[in-house]
Write a structure and sequence with these properties.
With about 550 residues, this protein is an alpha/beta fold. The chain folds into three domains: about 70 residues, Urease, subunit C, domain 1 (Roll); about 325 residues, Metal-dependent hydrolases (TIM Barrel), CATH 3.20.20.140; about 80 residues, Diaminopimelate Epimerase, Chain A, domain 1 (Roll). It has 19 helices and 26 strands. The chain is globular.
Length: about 550
């Protein structure tokens, strides 16, 4: 009798096992933050064909599914793949071989870094990025005298950290034909005693950029692959690349199709004739990894280079209110074109005058109950009169919390009392109940956990200022996580396919040995991603 019973049990167990559905991957013994609407926490999930087939507890998953690939997470923490909703992915990759100038203690160190970089990587043009005069004892734009001495025969063009100013040596100015008589709309050529110092702000930068040889297809391909590698290592599985040309989008599409590029990319188009003919006029273009449905435009410059367009003059430069880099008529015409084509508009606005200008234009095309998800990128300084207009017209404030912590030591010098209306992320979030948070890399670091930390702690990594910066506008941890996952996806109409770990969605996730919701916030900047998965396949491992 006992023998027969054992046989029966074994037979039933075998039948149960044979009835389990085979899947590509089973993950168990984890704390899985799904980031669904209820912020549900699970411990196991089953993945098939790149999608989440089931998510729940270990017993139910193992009773229904089996796989040759089982991942025991040993108690680690799993989050949806992080998404950067505003960055320069290709630009970051192209800049990797150039000199990185951030953190230099003075202008002399900047030039020294350039010289050392050229010893290793000699190039026709000397290029670099990241200098920031606000970090120096003398917080003034440099002149190009040291560059001229270091590089008398090679053109030099190095971009400020914000990407809205640069300095060129005399050789580069000569190649571009820039003299004391040169003028430019929507930009400024800084001069001393009537002579160009080499510093170019906003549209004036184009005078040099158009003289620099275009990167080859091979160089852009290498840049994209290198950028992907570094981004996977910090947990990014998706990016919004802010401003691309036709050939660049087509290259990304081809690399997606041949399998060498796996990063999910939302490509924003520059407002060019070529992009209109290739994409905009034909409507939204979407593949499994590429989305093309947005146009990127600029209303003003940056605060650090005093190009942000302000309603009142700069507190530390009373004769200057910033730069409107495009005419109102052109900005309006692009918005009309986007509206007619069913495209999003994503407009760079740092200053309060730029924000007001674009909300005025947007309001011509947006009904109060629209779902067009037009965005104002940065939304850095917002006049109180304009704050509620975000909610009125369902305009998305697309923020970068690391900008606040990068700027907080000096922004009050530019703005005076208006600083209380700057970096108002919690107040902006309340207008629609959500917002996306990115980095704008390479202006900031590519690591999205830095943005999480800055949004919550609003401090430097050393814990300063002790009480945080304008903490009434800090984000909660849940808000900060949503802003780099599901809300980032929502800002591109992709919340139904990614951004949270739910049945039917892409199996994009990251594994950490750290609980972002409960462990010490001060430890976040030092956390390392353990593993990154895209479509249920590992694309990065720390070990």
């Amino acid at each position: 009798m006992i023998k027969n019973s054992l046989v029966l049990i074994i037979a039933i167990t075998a039948m149960a096992c044979s009835n389990r559905k085979k899947v590509d991957l089973i993950v168990t013994n984890a704390t899985i933050y799904s980031v669904d609407s209820a912020f549900t926490v699970h411990n196991s999930m089953a993945i098939s064909n790149g999608k989440i087939l089931a998510i729940g507890n270990k017993e139910s998953i193992e009773n229904e599914y089996e796989s040759a690939n089982c991942l025991d997470a040993t108690g680690k923490f799993i989050y949806p793949g992080f998404i950067d909703p505003h960055c320069h992915f290709l630009g970051y990759g192209l800049g990797l071989p150039n000199a990185w100038l951030a953190g230099a203690k003075d202008w002399e160190e900047v030039v020294t870094r350039l010289v050392e970089n050229q010893k290793q990587y000699a190039t026709e043009w000397v290029k670099g990025r990241g200098w920031n005069q606000n970090e120096w004892a003398v917080k003034q734009f440099p002149t190009n005298e040291l560059l001229n001495k270091a590089f008398p025969d090679k053109p030099v063009y190095i971009v400020r950290i914000d990407g809205h100013a640069a300095i060129a040596n005399q050789k580069a100015l000569e190649i571009a034909g820039i003299t004391s008589k040169t003028i430019i709309n929507g930009g400024e050529i800084i001069k001393e005693n009537g002579k160009p110092t080499g510093v170019l702000v906003d549209n004036a930068m184009d005078l040099i950029r158009r003289c620099i040889p275009e990167s080859t297809k091979e160089e852009k391909t290498k840049a994209l692959i290198n950028a992907q590698k570094n981004c996977f290592a910090v947990g990014l599985t998706g990016v919004h690349d802010a401003g691309l040309d036709t050939d660049e989008v087509l290259l990304i599409d081809s690399l997606h199709k041949n399998g060498s590029l796996r990063m999910r990319i939302n490509a924003w188009l520059n407002p060019t004739k070529s992009n209109y003919e290739a994409f905009i006029s034909k409507g939204v273009y979407q593949t499994e990894r590429l989305t093309v449905r947005a146009i990127k435009i600029f209303a003003d410059g940056a605060l650090g280079s005093r190009g942000a367009l302000l309603l009142q003059p700069y507190s530390d430069d009373p004769q200057n209110s910033g730069i409107q880099v495009e005419t109102t008529e052109k900005l309006d015409s692009i918005c009309k074109l986007a509206n007619d084509a069913g495209y999003q508009v994503c407009t760079h606005c740092i200053g309060d005058a730029a924000v007001r200008l674009m909300i005025d234009i947007y309001s011509k095309y947006l009904d109060e109950n629209n779902d067009k998800r037009w965005r104002i990128e940065h939304s850095q300084i917002v006049d109180p009169q304009d704050m509620t207009r975000y909610g009125k017209y369902n305009i998305i404030p697309s923020i970068q919390t690391t900008h606040a912590t990068s700027d907080m030591d000096w922004a009050d010098e530019r703005l005076g009392d208006r600083i209380k209306y700057a970096y108002a992320y919690q107040e902006l979030l309340q207008q629609n109940g959500w917002l996306p948070n990115g980095s704008d890399f390479p202006i900031e670091h590519i690591n999205p956990l830095y943005g999480f930390y800055s949004g919550v702690a609003r401090q430097h990594f050393n814990g300063e200022p002790k009480d945080g910066f304008q903490m009434q506008n800090s984000l909660t941890r849940e808000q900060a996580l949503r802003a780099m996952t599901i809300w980032a996806a929502r800002s591109a109409f992709e919340e139904n396919i990614k951004g949270s770990l739910e049945v039917g969605k892409n199996a994009d996730f990251v594994i950490l040995n750290f609980d972002l919701m409960n462990d010490s916030i001060n430890a976040v900047p030092n956390i390392k991603i353990q593993q990154t998965y895209v479509n249920g396949e590992q694309v990065y491992s720390l070990n």
